[in-house]
Amino acid sequence: MWGSRVSPSTLSELNQKIAAQIDAWRGRRIEGEHAYVYLDGIWLKRSWGGEVKNVSILVAVGVNTEGYREVLAIEEGTKEDKASWQNFLRRLKERGLKNVKLFISDKCLGLVESLAEFYPESKHQRCAVHFYRNVWSLVPAGKVREVSAMLKAIHASEDRESALIKAAQVSEKLRVMKLGAAARLVESGIDETLNYYAFPSQHWRSLRTNNAADQ
User: Fold this and answer.
1) N or C: which end of the chain has fewer CB within 10 A?
2) 27 DSSP assignment
C-alpha cells in the first residue's frame, strides 16, 4: 500500500500493540449518561485463513449530556441474533451504560427482547427507514416512490395522534391499491416507529432512525 515492504516480525509487533489498544478501548468504563443510544448490526467481509466470510459487527453510538455522539462499543457478533445482542448489551451494562431513555434500532432478531431484559425502563424506537424498506419489499417496483411518499407523510405529522390517524389513512389507501400485505405491515408495525414523539420536538428528526444519512 505504501510502496515499501515490512518484515513479518515488525508487522506482528505492530499488530500486538494495536490489539492491546483496541482491547483497552473496548473494556473502558462508560462515563456519564447517554439519553439516546443507536444500535445497529453491520455485515462485512473478512478474510480468514485464505477464506472470505461474512462477519456481523455490532455497534452502539450514544448521545451524551452535551448533545455529542460517542461510539460506545464495536464488537464482532457470531451472527446478528439474540445471543449476540444479549452478550453485547450485557457488556454495555457492565461497563456502566445507564439511564438510557431511548434505544433506536432496526427490529433485528432478538434485539428488542434483549433490550427488555437488560434495559426494561428504556423505550425503543424502531428505525423508520428500515421499516420503510420492509414495506417496500411488499410493493411492486413501479409503486415504491408513491408508497414512500405516503409513509414519510406519517412521520411528518405534528404529533403521535396525528401520525396514527395518517397511518390508518395510508393503510386504507394501500388496500385500495391492492397492496394488502403492505397495508397489514403498516397497521401492525407503525406504532413501534412513533416512540420518538415522546421526546423534545427538536430531537425528532435524529430519533426517527439509526441511519445517520437520513437524520
Assistant:
1) N
2) T
Could you give the angle at which helices 160-176 and 180-189 cross, rounded to 10 degrees? Answer: 170
Q: What is the pLDDT of residue 54?
A: 83
Residues 110 and 136 in one domain: no
Number of folded domains in the chain? 2
Residues 156 and 171 in one domain: yes
> Is there a domain that residue 22 lies in?
no
Cell of 122: 428504556
The model's pTM is 0.87
At residue 20, the pLDDT reads 86
Question: What are the φ and ψ backbone dihedral angles of 36, each rounded to 5 degrees?
Answer: -120, 135
CB < 8 Å & 24+ apart, contacts of 120-126: 123/195, 123/198, 124/192, 124/195, 125/192, 125/193, 125/195, 125/196, 125/207, 125/208, 126/189, 126/192, 126/193, 126/195
Run means of pLDDT, 10 residues per run, the chain, 215 residues: 76 82 92 96 78 87 94 84 92 96 92 95 97 97 97 97 98 98 98 97 95 73
CA atoms within 13 A on the CB side of 212: 9
Q: Which amino acid is at 89?
A: L
